[in-house]
Structure prediction request, 610 residues.
Amino acid sequence: MFITIRNLTKSFKKGPNLITPLQNLSLEAPRGEFLALMGPSGSGKTTLLNLIAGIDSPTSGDLMIDDHDVARLSRAQLTKWRSRHVGYIFQLYHLVPILSAFENVELPLLLMPLSRSERRARADAALDLVGLSDRAQHRPPELSGGQEQRVAIARAIVHDPELLVADEPTGDLDGESARSILALLTSLSQDHGKTIVMVTHDPKAAAVANRVLHLEKGQLVNPPATPASAVS
Amino acid sequence: MKLLILALKNITRHRLRSLLTMAGVAAGMFLFTAVETTQHSLAKVTQASADDTTLIVYRENRFCPATSRLPEHYLPTIRRIEGVREVIPIQIAVNNCGASLDVITFRGVPAEDLRKYNPDLVVIAGSYENWIKRSDAALVGETFAQRRGLKIGDKFEAVGINVHVAGIIKSKESQDNNVAYVHLPFLQQASNIGLGTVTQFNVKVASSDLLDPIAKAIDETFRSDSQPTVTRPEKAFFAETAKQMIELIDFTRWLGLGAVAAVLGLVANAVLLIVRARVKETAILQTLGFSRLQIASLVSFEGILLGLLGGAIGVISAYLFFHWQSFTLGNEGLTLAITPSPTILLKGLLVALLLGLLASLYPAWRTSRQPVVQSLSQ
Ligand SMILES: Nc1ncnc2c1ncn2[C@@H]1O[C@H](COP(=O)(O)OP(=O)(O)OP(=O)(O)O)[C@@H](O)[C@H]1O
Ligand SMILES: [Mg+2]
Prediction:
């Protein structure tokens, strides 16, 4: 299994109260699977995604990704692990506004021992893959939302991570742009073997995934309906 | 290196704010450099060093060139004292005996002796021979000439003395660059002192460790004479007679310190504003895998760049300011020329860099510790 999660619990102290957005959650996913994560607001989707992406650590339980014991890594080790193995795609793209599309995509490569020309080649290839070679020198404010998200996807894949996580990647896009982003993600999983975990509120988006998981109050529940019937 | 470029791009983000910060840093560092330059120039003329060999023989209990009168015939007696290399009698006329910003000093010397006394003297315009030939001729120090806008052939009048500029000189001894040398008898007559009387003798000794014993020997020689002397090294003489001026200049070190504190606060404030406005973006970089050290470096680089760029503007403009605009403070015939030095320039740049670093240490540390998840959802 590429992702193995057992009895994963995450709780926060909020004043005197203990909030537990994730409780004893278990889950497995093979390499290359495209997983969609649905559930009502506050059900713990982002919390789970952040644990899988290694930007947060669980309170208890196991989290193995590609044989890395992610739950036991220190903060510094997690940072290093992320820079090599994870690509994160945000709902609001989060590009650096003063950098060009190319420079944004190049950012993760600055952390690797690469020459300038190697970085250039890789960033160009990533931009090419998302179909934005002709916008390399544009800055985020000069791009449409759909284009920004594609630059963000290029940034997430430029260092060739095995795992992509996406938190409502189409949540802020119109239907047309959303469809092209979903097609891109599908191709990344099918043609490039990326394992993808995508949080979404949109059943149409969830429908492109291989499997849809439903989260409620921090626990996985049996799907109320199959993805196919959810679309209709 | 890559982080440095990123930091450079970051400070162009709020162009106006960065420029204002740098302008403030520049003003502070200008002040700092001005103070340092003054202190440094003062130290050069008052702090004894191993290659000092000049003594000044003055009339005992007299503290102004106008009242110090010594008989010229002391000259051969002083010259015979063991260890004395050269002696020159000097009559001094100044426009202002106390501390003054625009001091004009005439030094009357025996024309044929000046070169022998000071072989380092270089005539950069006009000629030494013309000076010797003409009785009302003056050899004007470079700084003096620059300040007064004097050229060869000019006539000028000061302290009731009319002279003709025959040459412009430059010397390693800073005092020479601030005075006008005229013929001794000419000055004695023009200032109504009368022939045979001088203000002081300047004595060159063989080495700096002879300064004190020879000073004692000279004073001993004339102790029971009608005009007893007091002899001191030139720098000690300056330090003693210009006490008030030195105290005033010493006080300016607090201004320099204040300027440094202001720069520190300014940069720290700018960097704090920068990181506050960029909490989320920093979280994105952290998500991409930027380490704590890299995040902290990025913030520090921005502070250092603000400090160094603003500092460079301030320090270099202060350097040029003192280079083009000559300032001299005078007291009792000795002048303090405030001259810029490359050492101070480097020191200023280094201080600016360190201030930038120091100002960003705390913001950098805090930013690198910010929790990723909470920062992302801000
Ligand atoms: N850092 C935190 N500190 C305290 N509570 C938190 C923190 N992060 C999340 N929570 C709480 O955990 C619960 C789950 O939050 P989470 O963001 O995972 O929900 P979500 O399913 O992503 O919701 P949405 O669909 O609105 O994005 C919420 O009640 C939230 O308030
Ligand atoms: Mg969420």
